[in-house]
Design goal:
This is UPF0102 protein NBRC116187_13850. With 124 residues, the chain is an alpha+beta fold. The protein has a single domain, classed as Trna Endonuclease, Chain: A, domain 1 (3-Layer(aba) Sandwich). It has a five-stranded mixed sheet with strand order 1-2-3-4-5.
Amino acid sequence: MLRFTPKQRTGNQAEALAEQIMCRAGLSCLARNYRCKQGELDLVMRDGDTVVFVEVRYRRHNRWGGAAESVNQPKQQRVILAAQHFLLHHPKLANRPCRFDVIAAEGNPADPAAYQWIREAFTC
């Protein structure tokens, strides 16, 4: 039986709500928690013809910087490398347009109003 820490449970809750927010906006989920040697993709979504790689960040408070600011250059590079790996292993998606979004949440992880969706948050 898998046991999750409270931090992991909160992270899973944030990712699930982020996915719901995106699905309500018309996107569809291609993958969740895609892991490879290069890194992890929290969500891979499809927005029409576009493949959207999504980093979900949650912070209980912004004392040490907000959730969006925590997606720094090294984190962006890991997400980009993981996205390249994903596309290598899903060749039918490789020629589609791609973008990198961030969904940042602060405060109550169960409150959809706490979530900010930043489209095209960074580029490769």
